[in-house]
Amino acid sequence: MSETTVDLPQHVFTLFAVFRLSSSHPVVLDGRDVPGIVQELEDVVDVIGDEGVTVRGWYDASGLRSDADLMVWLRGGAGEDLQWALRELRRSSLLKPLIRTWGAVGVLDGSEAPDEEEPALWLAVRAPDAPLETPSTLEADDLSGLARLLADHRLEGRHAAGVDAEVYVGRLIEPVEIIEVLQ
């Protein structure tokens, strides 16, 4: 009897991008435009999919924050791939007029999150009475170490009843850091 091994990526990166509608450049669609615009977006999703980036979801974020109407969840093997994929999506007719208000990038151990796994948390599902929260701080450059630490906590949390959560590791990027990079 031979064992079959599956090569999982060492890390899986995820990106959440939130957009809002523009009051000065509203999205105006004629009913005849819709099939072509939807097809264009589906074509872009196929192109980025061919490059290893998965669109995990499109979420209606209106009513949750004053600066949020749409959240896009991407997943891939490298942060740079996610950035590229988001730029490709933003060039589409449907997303071009939207204003990006915020986003987050995270990384987790690839063995914990196969692409076919359904997201554990949905906006329409009530949060558990006792969520597993593990605030942790490590050096900003040690995201892999933080991912391992949180993976251990997640595995321990699975033994508790009702705990089912995704764990993502990220780093807050201050606006001043963005300016420094652009200079």
TrEMBL record:
Reaction catalysis annotation: Fe-coproporphyrin III + 2 H2O2 + 2 H(+) = heme b + 2 CO2 + 4 H2O
GO molecular function: heme binding; metal ion binding; oxidoreductase activity
Listed pathway(s): Porphyrin-containing compound metabolism
Entry keyword annotation includes Iron: yes
Cofactor(s) this protein requires: Fe-coproporphyrin III
UniProt keyword annotation of Heme present: yes
Enzyme type, top EC level: oxidoreductase
Keywords: Heme, Iron, Metal-binding
Entries under InterPro entries matching the protein: ChdC/CLD, Dimeric_a/b-barrel
A Pfam family it matches: Chlor_dismutase
Known EC number: 1.3.98.5
Protein name: hydrogen peroxide-dependent heme synthase
Protein source organism: Leucobacter ruminantium
